[in-house]
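Quick one:
INPUT:
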């Protein structure tokens, strides 16, 4: 279990905290989509979870161990691929040689398979690659670490269409009851089919925290021109097909979740949305 316990964090004492009294629990066996506006604190939260930032108050624990202590038992079980990064001037082989000892379940063969899916070979100087190729290499290594917690910040940014498809295939086959995947993204359509839990953060707090199964059991998502449906909607937004609606699920039949519309609902009326789940 990964727990964020009443964390407050600010980059400067003169500025408002990015996160304030922020708490969250993330269980094993899930792919969590982390959604939020720019500046909502998503990347900060990910760095706190990885132990790369220290909260001003509160703590983050993985199976009861504080991640900021950077103990071997947490360092070896958490890997983060940030949105923006760079590689040192090394060959990929040297990079792997230096970093794989930190991850006991790292598989070189898996990394080669991942590279091949991305149409890359291991004889690379990682510092001389394009941004998209660097992202593919970083994901190939990250996936091969086989850590219990894999944190991905905007993982599909910079990937071409085949790269995005390869990424989705990897996540689909790597899910297990022991692992946690946290995917922070604005590109919700790239990852929507992978998620089994949605976390929405804004205003330094968690606005929404529910599983895909819960969402589909309570809500329906439709596009329509039907004025009667529009008038009965829990939430509505204009779309190319007329109006995109969130409706109560009264017949038990699931619809595909419109994550962008769900985010708008949570952002505009978090109390109204959560009231539906608290009944």
């Amino acid at each position: 279990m990964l727990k964020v316990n009443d964390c407050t964090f600010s980059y400067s004492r003169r500025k408002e905290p990015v996160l304030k009294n922020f708490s969250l629990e993330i269980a094993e066996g899930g792919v969590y989509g982390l959604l939020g506006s720019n500046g909502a604190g998503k990347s900060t939260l990910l760095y706190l979870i990885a132990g790369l930032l220290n909260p001003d108050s509160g703590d983050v624990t993985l199976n009861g161990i504080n991640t900021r202590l950077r103990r071997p038992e947490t360092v070896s079980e958490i890997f983060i691929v940030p949105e923006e990064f760079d590689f040192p001037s090394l060959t990929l082989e040297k990079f792997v040689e230096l970093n794989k000892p930190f991850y006991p379940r790292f598989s070189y063969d898996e990394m080669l398979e991942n590279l091949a899916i991305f149409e890359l070979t291991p004889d690379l100087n990682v510092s001389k690659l394009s941004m998209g190729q660097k992202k593919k290499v970083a994901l190939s290594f990250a996936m091969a670490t086989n850590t219990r917690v894999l944190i991905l910040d905007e993982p599909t940014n910079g990937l071409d269409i085949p790269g995005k498809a390869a990424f989705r295939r990897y996540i689909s086959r790597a899910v297990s009851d022991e692992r946690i995947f946290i995917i922070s993204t604005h590109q919700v359509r790239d990852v929507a089919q992978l998620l089994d839990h949605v976390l929405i953060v804004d205003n330094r707090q968690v606005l929404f925290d529910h599983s895909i199964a819960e969402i589909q059991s309570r809500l329906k998502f439709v596009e329509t021109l039907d004025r009667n449906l529009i008038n009965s909607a829990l939430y509505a937004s204009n779309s190319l097909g007329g109006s995109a609606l969130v409706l109560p699920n009264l017949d038990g039949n699931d619809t595909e979740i419109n994550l962008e519309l769900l985010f708008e609902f949570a952002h505009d009326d978090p109390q109204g949305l959560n009231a539906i789940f608290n009944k």
